[in-house]
Amino acid sequence: MTSQVRGVQLARLLGQWHALPGRRRSPDYAALAAAVRGLLADGRLPLGVRLPAERELAEALRVSRTTVTAAYRELRESGHLASRRGAGSWTMLPGTHRVASTGLWTPIDERDMIDLGVAALAAPPQLLAAARAATEDLPRYLGGAGYHPTGIIELREAVAHAYTERGLPTSPEQIMVTSGTQHALDLVLRLALSPGGGVLVESPTYPNALAALSARRARITTHGLATDGAGWDADLLLGSIRQARPKVAYLIPEFQNPTGHLMDTGLRERLVGAAHAAGTDLIVDESFVDLPLDGTLMPPPVATFDRHSRVISIGGMSKPYWGGLRIGWVRASAPQVQRLAAARVGVDMASPVLDQLLAVHLLAEAASIVTARRTQLVAQRDALVGALAERLPDWRVAVPRGGVTLWAELDGPISSALARAAEEVGVRLAPGPRFGLDGTLERFLRLPFTLPAADLVEAVGRLAAVRYDLDRTGRSQWREPSVIA
């Protein structure tokens, strides 16, 4: 059954839709249609949702029904709305668009688009040679059925060795190979969280993790992160676990996505102790653990302090290697891995053998590949930071010591409006509200430094021009939030 958004709900999402940026003020119906497209673009309005009737939305927005009728007509013409007499109108994708890896709609013909919505690097040059070597290894697996629910032994051994090298002794029986880190998270949630269970997450946090939790109908509570400094307030974080006693806590302690924070050793140890006392399982996302920059020394893995099988670590190949290689993993106790494998049979049976063999060869060259990645990321990060300081000096940015993203504090609550305007000048952004709950974080913007330096500098130049236009256009000022006692 198609879900429906009510008029007052859509009005709240639209905000100041009539004040969209532009060199010439658009008619109200065009601005309203553009605002709805903007909500679809930043993921705040889902696809397949039935919009309110024209009269209902007109009353909620305090505009004429003619304005809403014209806006809906424009949305139908652009392919963002389908209507059927007696059934209503619902959101959809245009026929000339596709769904990108961010989950957002993107034009098929986008040669000049600079995509800052995806925090991932292009493939390393070693990938082709590794693929050829994996193909040569494949014949020895062809005599079997090809199903390996926990993963082929070579890859499990390689991943276990990497954990051991980090100071966390690990056996292959403690590793389960998955089809990417997101798949790992989904499987762990199936095992650790009943529908409606309580979950603690950071705010901001990874949007796709929020999507996975929503799919489990989790009751989500958040721990707010500072924009600079240590990130986590130890007393508040540990207090939240002790008081709320969530079934699960999902955290990103290594170069947190999107803020780039790195959790210190002392808090890691206290976190595990608090989780054990509260009966909370910790899901630790280590997607960026291989990417410390500037010689940053890495703290021990959170699971180092685990004595009661409370910590489940997930990671994968997407960030240090390539997002197109859908290989991830779970590190847990051997009994937990077996339960995960049993749960997996109802999902996808096993990961592709050829992809796993490719991962084995890439991990064998980890030292050279990851070293080159770090050098590349330092240069691109510094180029992005320099361009922001020159073109947008009022934005506050804490330079991360690792990972692939900057978390910029803007000079106003303009993140979604800026993302809509930037799309028109060929820059795709992931606005702050995508990283939190309930449409908050409008003063923030995630900026990955995974593209070539020249593209990053060009993107900042376009953003600066758009930001300048936001101030030049005749529009009502941002309103202060009302105080309700």
Task: Give an overview of the whole structure.
With 485 residues, this protein is α/β, with parallel strands linked by helices. Helix content is 40%, strand content 14%. It has 15 helices and 18 strands. A seven-stranded mixed β-sheet has the order 7-13-12-11-10-8-9, with helices on both faces. Helix 10 links the parallel strand 10 and strand 11. It is globular. The two termini are 38 Å apart.
Summary keywords:
15 helices; 485 residues; alpha/beta; 4-stranded antiparallel beta sheet; 18 strands; single chain; 40% helix; 7-stranded mixed beta sheet
Brief digest:
This protein has 485 residues and is α/β, with parallel strands linked by helices. The chain is built from 15 helices and 18 strands.
Give the N-to-C terminal Cα separation.
38 Å
> Which percent range fits the helix content?
25-40%
Structural class: alpha/beta
Number of strands: 18
Task: Indicate the topology.
Blueprint: H1 7-14, H2 28-41, E1 50-51, H3 54-61, H4 65-78, E2 81-84, E3 88-91, E4 97-99, E5 105-107, E6 114-115, H5 127-137, H6 153-165, E7 175-178, H7 181-192, E8 198-203, H8 207-215, E9 219-224, H9 234-244, E10 248-251, H10 265-278, E11 281-285, E12 311-316, E13 328-331, H11 334-344, H12 353-364, H13 366-391, E14 396-397, E15 405-409, H14 415-424, E16 427-428, E17 430-431, E18 444-448, H15 453-472
Parallel strand pairs: 6-16, 8-9, 8-10, 10-11, 11-12
Antiparallel strand pairs: 1-3, 2-3, 4-5, 7-13, 12-13, 14-15, 15-18, 17-18
